[in-house]
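Q: Second attempt. The first request was missing the SMILES, so the protein and flavin mononucleotide are both included now.
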Amino acid sequence: MERCLDLLLTRRSVRKFEGREVSDELLRKVLDAARYAPSARNSQPWEFVIVKDRKLIEELGKVHRYASPLLNAPLAVVVLCDPEASPTSYLVDCANATIYLMLAAHALGLGSVWIQSLRDVERVLEIVGAPANRVPVAIVAMGYPAERPTPPRRKELSELVHLNKYGTRWEA
Ligand SMILES: Cc1cc2nc3c(=O)[nH]c(=O)nc-3n(C[C@H](O)[C@H](O)[C@H](O)COP(=O)(O)O)c2cc1C
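A: Got both inputs this time. The predicted holo structure:
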């Protein structure tokens, strides 16, 4: 179980990928793990679009300036939410599935980065041909890592944790 903790601490956003393909067998394991994410009332309001078509990946990679890691990724996964299936929590539910997917990818030796999609909902839906009543909560660029990024700074626990009442420091 300590190794699971290690998995959480060593995942990094990877933005440079090797050219080699990811097998469907590996991808299946990644997507299978995403199904186990928690969701409100177990509503599982997510669906996944695997994008391997170069033309479509390039269109996704141009939805905004920070989407460019997609341009050198062998594949992308668009995580779609159905707001009707989980009206209060669909964004949270689908964020859970996205991070499960990214952690599973990391466990299997793949790299990934979450690409923002919530400012370009209509365009992303159009590119992958999804119905207008879905929300693309994330585009995940994925592939074998071609970089080992240094961890970005994390806030200290002392900046984040309160005991019982907001403002009381937790001295552990
Ligand atoms: C909701 C969300 C949106 C993000 N959007 C982008 C993005 O559009 N492009 C990008 O390169 N990284 C994006 N990231 C990745 C973050 O920049 C990254 O997670 C953060 O810098 C921490 O680095 P780490 O993932 O290596 O711990 C996004 C992450 C999240 C959770």
